[in-house]
Protein 1
Amino acid sequence: MDRYEQVIELAKRRGFLWNSFELYGGAAGFYDYGPLGSTLKRRIEQIWRELYVIHEGFMEIETPTIGIEDVFVASGHVGGFSDPLCECKECGEAFRADHLVDKIVEIADALSNEELDRLIKENNIGCPECGGELGEAYEFNLMFKTSIGPGTGRQGYMRPETAQGMFVNFQRLSRYYREKLPFGATQIGKSYRNEISPRQGVIRLREFTQAEAEIFTHPEEKTHPNIGRFEDVTLNLYSDEAQQKGVIEQMTVREAIDRKIIAHEFLAYHIALTNNFLQRVGIAADKLRFRQHQKDEMAHYAIDCWDAEILTDRFGWIEVVGIADRTDYDLMAHAKTSGTELVVHVEYDEPKMIEQFVVKPNMAKMGPLFKGKAKTVADALKELSSDELDKEEIKVTVDGEDFTVPSDIISYTQETVKVSGEKIVPHVIEPSYGIDRILYCTMEHAFEEEMVAAEGEEEERIVLRFQNEVAPVQVAILPLLTREELMDPAKQIAEKLRNRGLLVAYDDSRAIGRRYRRNDEIGTPYSITIDYDTLEDNSVTIRDRDTMEQVRAPVDGIEDVIYDLVYGKRDFETAGVKL
Ligand SMILES: Nc1ncnc2c1ncn2[C@@H]1O[C@H](COP(=O)(O)OP(=O)(O)OP(=O)(O)O)[C@@H](O)[C@H]1O
């Protein structure tokens, strides 16, 4: 069994992850979260919310998981959200063509279908299932289609990312934030991709959870007021240049900015924030790196893109977060398709004097032509762009009425005018997290097998060394025996701890040793045992999952002691408990 199998076996047995539709034989690309898995997921999402929503102030919104066609035409998903598919001519199995050659070239997903076909031929790659000959690669769109409404309905798609819900609400968001850049919105929710061959279990799902932030910034202001928070943090950077050499470089955030390895401070801040989040949920620092997209891999409109990658036992480095400066691409695309300007009005600190062409309608001629509307038509002319004015007959619409103005009754002058602000299409910085992959990695990095002494013998122990903050059970309450006199106080203690906001599991089944093992396996950081001494001196035993150290502590105030232990505010010594 490799580590992946061990983790998945434990995850299934203990109620973290289950294959969906198991009763009916299952379906690839879908996983259910059991009781502990769901809680673990919520804990991870909660920390994400704390960082992005509460601290950064990027408010969370919730938009439909089904989208209408216009949205995905504008975003480019209808036209281009596809992976190269290759089918076996013999058994009919489908494969991602780029995955078939990813051992041969470094960045297989940047190759064209022709290049993929050539590599498959040159390297005699056959069907991984039956060895048969493979057909030519072709593009397969990954969006699930659906129809909205009865009958043939209206074409709809299950969203392949949460991001579009934020872009299409740009105007409302901008008003909510009173047009003060930078501002951002976040969304945590399901996304759907009809992945070609999801053979990597929970790593590649057809329905998965994303946590995304769309941060709208001024295109020319990409410094960050809080960069000082992270300047001295060391990152494992695998820049485009470092990838040529094949070495991951360690450097501080400040150095990466000064050496222009990361395009700008704002992006660097968000890479550092991702680093902070991933380590806080329990990703091992030495198994985490940030890989920069190479030139031919990066979207043509992007300024800079980095993927947070985590080292896993079976799959090697996997992408869990993408962090990109996407420029004004998304807003421009939606503005074009919807015919609506998506801009913010930025006020200058001081009004600026600028030279400008100004339209001068000849009112003596406008009057007879447009009568009582002459003034409003003249005002409407002043709002037109130079393209719209550069016509023989100029069209304007006033209060729903169309007017045609002959160009010879208009003249232009150059004037110095005072302007107090300008219209700007913001740039978008997007951190895009895959929660399921992160959850799996927290389990794999927390997983440990060790030999421990038990009753004079060595015994194997499996322990999930979760960070206390993400552990789905923070404290287990274990009466030594299933006797009323022990169970009653145990239940009372459990209630006290729940009232303190802790995640508590009360467990009185089977021998105490087995219950410790079970809690080690699900990663419970602390266990409290209630025994006959409890009845004598009102004290309990607290056991630490990692060290297996046991201490006695008074029942009075136990909720505060455990709370502080869980949230790292006290250790056993400062908790005032005795060995
Ligand atoms: N099929 C999937 N199953 C689980 N998580 C996914 C899946 N596709 C994407 N994600 C997560 O969403 C994040 C952002 O999505 P993005 O579109 O950048 O992924 P991607 O580059 O298409 O991923 P990949 O190259 O692995 O298919 C990824 O970093 C990943 O964590």
Protein 2
Amino acid sequence: MLKVGKIEYINVLPVYFGFIDGVIPFEYQFKEAVPSALNELLREGKIDISPISSYEFITNSEKYFLFPNFSISSFGEVKSVLFFSKLPIHQLHRKDVWLTKSSMTSRALIEYLLKNRYGVEPNYYYYSMKEGNLPKSATAVLAIGDDAFKFLKDKNFRFIYDLGEEWKNIYDLPFVFAVWAVRRQTVENQPLSVKKIYNKFLESKKYGLNHLKKIAARYAPRVGLTEKECMEYFKCLNYDFTNLHKKAINKFAQLLGFDIKVEKFLLSM
Ligand SMILES: C=C(O[C@@H]1C=C(C(=O)O)C=C[C@H]1O)C(=O)O
């Protein structure tokens, strides 16, 4: 049986809602975790298919093939990848910046932006909400997913930067935070199962995108959002993988020093 990853944030619900709501029969095993944990599980072969950080794909691309037509992206504002700071961003040189351990993509993006766009090199530290090791004294904090909504209630941070917006302002491209990857080994050993589950994911996403209101009504309160805020959030997110998204991920890879053409890694379905 294929083992399938699922990010524990509401951002993926539109893709999984057909399965969750019981309309798409699902005979697989879900493993639910934060993105960095899913990256590791897939890399180590403990699961077969999962949304992973685009950074994980970029840095370990030889291990994976990608589902065509799936990503977690935004064109401009994303709302859930936020950099909170007590100082304006260009004043963070040698200040204490805390990055979430749950992310790989957004960590790489904020580090890139701080160094190359804002010319600052802070002291980096790493926290996790589960460990609860983020000190009150942190000058700035990167948060992703449902955690980002919690930080919005913390009025200590005067300056808030949305990384989807930051990226668009510079490159006028969407930003691809995550992609759906399959281990190469799984594709080689079980090609028909992979094709079958891909089609189920397509159906589940179609159902989810047609039932966003139902998702928002059920899940918004769990993350402290109103239904309206949750709908606005879903409108910022995009789950496709168009040519523009491919261009964007290639650009991000190039900026990080990796010469990758994502087109070469797409599964032909
Ligand atoms: C938009 C988001 O995209 C995500 C960000 C990721 C990362 O930074 O590595 C990975 C998966 C996605 O959950 C989010 O989590 O808010």
